[in-house]
Design a protein that fits this description.
The structure is a homodimer. Chain A has about 450 residues and is of the alpha/beta class. Chain A folds into 3 domains: about 180 residues, FAD/NAD(P)-binding domain (3-Layer(bba) Sandwich); about 120 residues, 3-Layer(bba) Sandwich (FAD/NAD(P)-binding domain), CATH 3.50.50; about 120 residues, FAD/NAD-linked reductase, C-terminal dimerisation domain (Enolase-like, domain 1, 2-Layer Sandwich), CATH 3.30.390.30. Chains A and B meet through helix 8, strand 21, strand 22 and helix 10 of A and helix 8, strand 21, strand 22 and helix 10 of B.
Chain lengths: ~450, ~450
């Protein structure tokens, strides 16, 4: 009857707790979390703020009751202050005071925190970071009286928030310092996302370097280089996140990229019986076969599950991330998996990327929507990745998953044509769009580099 | 400058012709077809008849002009009467008479023909089989004056036609001899399809053995065992198809299952320089590693492409079919890939199937639809197949393709959890439904057969 102590009540922590109990019903599992919201879907926050999910309680993947029903002792509003890996104790603090709690196995799932850029005015009232439920409630309060919002950062959350606030009839200005929004996809696709935002009335300003925020009259004015000053009632700063690894660092655990906790493939840290998972750890990249930092909810779920399994005697390995992700922005879904050419080059891998435009299903059946696929393969023919932009009803998300599965299988681009994929005119074509894109890639490569024979 | 002669102008024939020209622009490619409609999408016929695709011309995957623009000599209304594999000549017949045409390589893509059950009355006016464009025009003519239709056969085409005619406000009775419609999926899912048909007003009669069709007064009356006689203005008989292999048989080519032409993995027949592809040939099954008969448009495209490649000196292998398919029936999509338990058992493979009910995306985001997944794995843990029924907007088709890709990679069911699949609340869950189904399968198997350790 080992005592498994889990620090963190978000995706990784909850998954670890549940998996430990599932595999060892005799395990004594305690999950502590700093706030009162176990297993809340951070990814769902924009949909609460848009009004699409009216009740914030619904954002929980599982309720506290669900988790307790699995036999897990849930301690909310409880902070872990210190880990003593030698004696295997953690100092916990809650409203009743502090106490040392012993563990047989510890899982650290402290997650990430938003990066707060060092801008003059970042601390002003009406300026919000967005990561926790408390952040969410504070922002919701500000939004009630807002007509104009300024979003700093054109990544996933920034785009989702632009969509969400537009749906609330709040005027949105989006500031992005790169030359196009959504720098996680190539410019050719990012520009389509920019167009979609503008089409829905978002004032998108790219190459905009924010320098300061000032309160002027009734509003907040953001100014900087590359854009005319813009004023809003609310400012949302969503530039990126960093691992919340302070506790681990103070316990002497080695940190790696961006100060994420170093773990092995089984989610074990350098300290005996201490595992870690989720946004606070380095993530193994399935294609690069090395650690990277890539905080994603899907990855946190997988790593948490593995940490929980290994905390009760398992030996399961994390197979790695491909950075597969999708975001819905108004009518578009934007998805990617694996490596883009720019990323492959950075790793010393020669690659070719081609772009294919097609429809999600046979054009003769009503409702066909266009889809742009960028396919990346190595000069040796190996599939490296894909990016897709299309209507969110066009099965874009699960088409990127076909590529993600093919990547996991180590296929060549050419082998996409061998996959036996489903077809009916209302839902696809006899060659699925990802297969057409693969065939175009092979043709493109042949064109670029004619075979010597 | 080899002369490649292609018999057949549907998916396999057109793919073979185009691929041969693509790889060898010096190749002299002639494609002959018995009717005037090259590369028409047979799968699209129900959507023309429903009115969703108003112009039948749009059903062509490619027009005659597209095909000719690729440098292919297209001979419509031309029948191949005889193949002399010794002298490498084919006797062709058209309006101008007969002539022998020599080939260097021959590709046979004669397709399939509908099975005409030996029913008294099958030849009556108003009774239709459905496979070619001519059949389609004849049926369309009958439907113009029809208020009530009877469909014999509850397979893919029967279901699509029930949907199509209901949309045209024609009353539909569907007769199926099995105990549920759509016997290509398990009863648990077939029954959901039956409910969907009834919900939309289709009079579904199962366990109905049709024995005869009679003209009585202004209508056609179908009678038999297990159902009360039913009268309609039109009867559509869509029970199954069989390979159109007469020409090949007369040329002395070996036939296999259901008289389909025997080919090797490179789509070569027993005769030198004669290849064959599509619905007229046996199809290699990727999981069973043996030939089967499984006529599908996707497979015809793949095999045709390979035959065309190998006709101009290539040596590409057909990797095999998994029988992946999807059909849209009113609001549902019904999809399958790989083996069901009943099929595995028939092949001597022990298997377990579990069923999972979940949503296509996070339930807190509007529009989530339920999805039923049946997951089949071998007793050794190997993934064997899956079946999914859900709303057609729920990415059912491309979710079955994730499983199809995992099958091609030879994954275990448990390894589905290792796949890095995309997630955003409007489009999925942190564990995709196919991963949840895989996890349920592993739990189910553990439950059924506790590990000995």
């Amino acid at each position: 009857m080992p005592h498994v102590l889990v620090i963190g009540g978000s995706d990784a922590g909850v998954m670890a707790s549940l998996r430990a109990r599932e595999l060892d019903p005799s395990a004594d599992v305690t999950m502590v979390l700093a706030d009162a919201y176990p297993n809340f879907s951070i990814c769902g926050i924009p949909f609460y703020l848009s009004g699409e999910t009216p009740d914030w309680h619904d954002l929980a993947h599982r309720t506290r009751e669900d988790i307790e029903a699995a036999g897990i002792d849930v301690r909310t509003d409880t902070r872990a202050l210190e880990i003593d890996t030698a004696s295997k104790n953690v100092l916990l603090s809650d409203a009743d005071g502090e106490d040392w709690v012993a563990y047989d196995r510890l899982v650290i799932g402290t997650g990430a925190v938003p990066v707060e850029p060092p801008l003059p005015g970042i601390g002003l009232e009406g300026v919000h970071l967005l990561h926790t439920m408390s952040d969410t409630f504070a922002l919701e309060e500000s939004l009630r009286h807002a007509d104009r919002a300024v979003i700093v950062g054109g990544g996933y959350i920034g785009l989702e928030m632009a969509d969400a606030l537009t749906q609330r009839r709040i005027e949105v200005t989006l500031l992005e310092q790169a030359s196009e929004v959504m720098t996680t996809v190539d410019l050719e696709l990012g520009s389509l996302v920019g167009e979609e935002l503008r089409r829905h009335g978002v004032d998108v300003r790219t190459s905009a370097l924010v320098e300061r925020i000032d309160r002027e009259g009734g509003g907040l004015t953001i100014s900087g280089r590359g854009f005319a000053p813009v004023t809003g009632d609310v400012v949302i700063v969503v530039v990126s996140v960093r691992p919340d690894s302070l506790l681990a660092r103070r316990a002497g655990l080695p940190l790696g990229m961006r100060d994420a906790i170093v773990v092995d493939r089984c989610m074990r840290t350098a300290a005996p019986d201490v595992l870690a998972a989720g946004d606070c750890v380095e993530t193994w990249h399935r294609l690069l076969s090395k650690p990277t930092y890539m905080p994603l909810g899907t990855t946190a779920h997988k790593q948490g599950r593995i940490a929980g399994e290994n905390a009760v005697g398992g030996d399961r390995r994390f197979e790695g991330s491909l950075g597969t992700q999708v975001v819905k922005v108004f009518d578009l879904a934007v998805a990617r998996t694996g490596l883009r050419s720019v990323e492959a080059t950075r790793e010393g891998i020669g690659s070719v990327t081609t772009q294919t435009r097609t429809f999600d299903h046979k054009a003769y059946y009503p409702g066909a929507t266009p889809m742009e696929i960028r396919m990346t393969g190595g000069r040796d023919g190996r599939l490296l990745g894909a990016q897709i932009v299309g209507d969110h009803r066009g099965q874009v998300a699960k088409r990127i998953d076909i590529v993600a599965t093919a990547l996991a299988a180590g296929l060549n681009v050419d082998q996409l044509s061998d996959l036996d994929l489903s077809y009916t005119p209302p839902l696809s074509s006899p060659w699925d769009p990802v297969q057409m894109a693969g065939q175009d890639w092979v043709r493109g490569v042949t064109h670029v580099e004619p075979p010597s024979a």
